[in-house]
Amino acid sequence: MMVFWRNHPWRLRVAVLLLSALVVGLLQVAAPGGLMRIEQIVGDWSWRLGASAKPERRIVVVDIDEASLKQVGPWPWPRSTMARLSQRLEEAGAVVQAYDIAYSDPMEGDAALAATWSQAPVVVGQIFSLDAQVTPRVGTVAGSLAAGGCPAFAPRSQGHYGIAPGLLEPAPALGHITPRVESDGVVRKVPALVCHEGRAYPSLALATLWRVAQPTGTGPVPAPDWVWSQASEQAYGVGLAPAGWLTSPSLPGLVVPVDAQGDMIVPYRAERRAFASVSAADVLNGTAEASLLRGTVALIGATAFGFGDRVATPHAAVSSGVEVHAQSIVGLLDHRIPYAPTSAALLQAAAAVLVAAALLALVRRRPGVTAKRLPLAGVLLAVGCYSGAAWALLQHDLWLPWASVAVFALVSSSALAAAEHALTRAQRERLSAHLGAYLPAPVAQRLMASDPSGSVQVNRRDISVLVADIRNFSSFAAHKPAEETAAMLHAFCCIAVDVVEQHGGVVENVVGDSVLAVWNAYSDCPDHPKQALLAAQELLRATRTLLAPSQLPHEDSPVQPLALGVGLESGIAVVGSFGPARRRAHAALGEPVSVAARLQQMTLDLSMPILIGPQLASQLPQGSTEPLGEYLLEGLSRQYALHAPTAWAELVPAEPLWASAATATERGTDGLKWAGWSDTGSPASLQIQSAANLRDA
Q1: How far, CA to CA in Å, does 52 sit from each of 292, 395, 400?
Q2: Is the CB of residue 147 less than 8 Å from the CB of residue 249?
Q3: Is residue 636 a contact partner of residue 602, using CB atoms and an 8 Å limit?
Q4: Which terminus of the chain has fewer Cβ atoms in its 10 Å neighbourhood, N or C?
């Protein structure tokens, strides 16, 4: 299987990416909450990093803080006190008074508070329970939309904390302050509408913004005119429609997107310090700066610790619930409510394809080092996914799911790095095998374990050298088909390599019909002279059949019989590589190599199959060689005492003509015919006589 992938690396890479996508898909199906949780937590970082400190003066928080409780008294305050607070805000010029407070229970002073509210634009809070286990029924629910019915995406109320009946007479606008608390306790969304008994009720922020758009006056206000739509019913942009949205004729141009659960994402774009805040006690005492409240939305809420209105937001682990409504109102005023488009899945798929393309481009552009850099590339791509989602959120109000794409980038890059490592290892093994075929195996292994170098790298060793060459091969190659010549060389090379390696040697070089082998050059071989001689003798025997002619030579034949000549010598030589790093050469250099090559050439002149140099002969057992005298070798400046193996005659192949001649019995019974061959001057008799002379020599 690995051979298939090694031969088709791009198929392996694509398969790895598809498998990674499958793993991420299964993870998304099995644990969608985990990825969503990651997006939410990291999304909180985006809000904190992108929050603006620019002062926000359209909204002023009238804070029921610790100082207020200390001066006025513990909560709940008397309704008369709340009536005085409302009157002070009206006198200060607040456009709308929005109360993040539920007045569910009747209390003394309701009439006075109702009378004050009838003189000012007021939005009052009410709470719905979305938990089927919690079903309160306190107060009266009011403030539903003018349109009857409920949208399909609106959550259903299971109970309520409405408004005291005595406070309904001035018909104030009402908005629910029901939070949507995530599993980690953070409020990131608010239901835009809540369906209660077949009617839809807006949130405090929606009711407040709608009330701002209504004419000022003392009379009752009409019901909110919010209208809902769904993506399945009509188009919205190009592939970027939210699951649903709200519009209002009173607020032309404003579109409030909501998700499939009917929630509006709270845009936490302003830092907490950006909001102006004034103590409720200062407002009651008349010491608050009037210009701070004039023309603003006064959002009355509590930050006192004992009040109990505590939530977690992306900006703080402990915060007042009034911050959620303040951020929502600012987002509505700016027409910037983030949302998740219904095409988010397609966008995720497109982002995953881009990640895969980037990884494949990296593999193609940087072969060899990709396996090391792919995990880092995966991390950078995952960070890029988050950065792109944060940019889309902060700049274009798009909440894009990115965690699954980031996980795909991490998983696919790691898997692709493992695949590249496996491919690289397989390729190196194949390259090592090829190097071992063209270079000595120890040299190939050393090259695979080291970096390229342009310096001379040689070792000085006492080695034995064998040089073998096929006689008359040039003539053979000139008159034979190229295929037959190549087959002959292939067979000879295979035999030579097997014989040399069986005797502990290494084939250093193969050039045409010549083989150079060395012993003791790369690993210790104590009896290397003896092993070299044994290899030479075995090589002659092993190639006898190969070099024998397929038919009897004749006088007119341009191809002479093939034979093998072998030269042997020992001595000190250097073995290693040299040349520039881009083109290295490996060789064994020294006197024993030169002498062995000359001895191989002299085998033809002396009609000997093997010639042994003096250094190697001196290291062989006594009686294993016989001296041939001293000779001046071609190109060398001194004479060398040459030797031959004592059994060299057994290594000479039988002459083809002798092999085809009549046996001794046939010669004895047919002497006249044999004598006729000898007396005649025929070419046959000359060839037989020549062969006999060569044999006697």
Answers
A1: 20, 13, 21
A2: no
A3: no
A4: N
Rg (the chain; Cα; Å): 50
Partnered with residue 514 across adjacent β-strands are: 469, 511
Can you give the pLDDT at residue 155? Answer: 95
Containing 436, the helix (H) or strand (E) segment is helix 403-438
Locate 304 and state its tokens. Answer: 């006192």
Write out pLDDT tens, residues 352-394.
Answer: 999 999 988 888 765 555 567 888 889 999 999 999 999 999 9
How crowded is residue 551: how many other Cβ atoms within 10 Å of its Cβ?
A: 7
For residue 457, the model assigns a pLDDT of 73
What is the edge-to-edge ordering of all strands in the sheet holding 244-247? 227-230, 244-247, 256-258
Return the closest-CA partner of residue 571 out of 620, 615, 538: 615
Least confident span in 114-118, 316-320, 576-580, 632-636: 576-580
What does the pLDDT look like over 2-55, one tens digit per residue? 455 455 567 888 888 899 989 988 988 888 788 888 889 899 999 999 999 999
Q: How far apart are CA 275 and CA 42, in angstroms?
A: 24
- How many whole angstroms separate alpha carbon 171 and alpha carbon 316? 36
Q: SS3 of 251, please?
A: coil
Q: Whats the size of the chain, residue-wise?
A: 697
| Buried residues in 407-418 as b, exposed as e (16+ CB within 10 A) | bbbbbbbbbbbe
How would you classify the pairing of strands 96-102 and 297-302? Answer: parallel
Q: Is 331 helix (H, G, I), strand (E, B) or coil?
A: helix
Sequence-ordered list of residues with C-beta below 8 angstroms from that of 613, at least 6 positions apart, any chain: 567, 568, 569, 570, 571, 592, 595, 596, 599, 640, 642, 643
| Distance (Å, whole) CA 180 – CA 169 | 30
Which strand (E) or helix (H) includes residue 412? helix 403-438
Is the overall model pTM greater than 0.90, yes or no? no
Pick from 506, 424, 202, 236: nearest CA to 325: 202
Distance CA 325, CA 329 (A): 6
Phi, psi of 343 (to 5 degrees): -85, 20
Per-residue pLDDT of 160-170, as tens digits, reads 999 999 998 88
Eight-class DSSP state of 451: -
**Considering only CA atoms, which of 501, 494, 565 is closest in space to residue 532?**
501
Q: How far apart are CA 91 and CA 93, in angstroms?
A: 5
Name the nearest CA neighbour of 485 among 470, 499, 507. 470
**Cβ pair 262, 153 in contact under 8 A:** yes
Task: From 131, 146, 61, 137, select the one nearest 98 (Cα to Cα).
Answer: 61
CA-CA distance, 240 to 257, in Å (whole number)?
A: 11
85-88's contacts with Cβ under 8 Å and 24+ in sequence apart are 85/280, 85/283, 85/284, 85/300, 86/113, 86/116, 86/117, 86/120, 86/122, 87/116, 87/119, 87/120, 88/283, 88/284, 88/286, 88/288
Q: Are 83 and 103 in contact (CB under 8 A)?
A: no
pLDDT value of position 582? 67
Q: Are 113 and 81 in contact (CB under 8 A)?
A: no
In this structure, what is the dihedral angle of CA atoms 316, 321, 324, 325, given to the nearest 10 degrees? -160
Give 427-464 pLDDT, tens digit per residue: 666 666 656 555 566 666 666 555 566 666 778 999 99
For 30-39, the pLDDT digits (tens) are 887 888 888 8
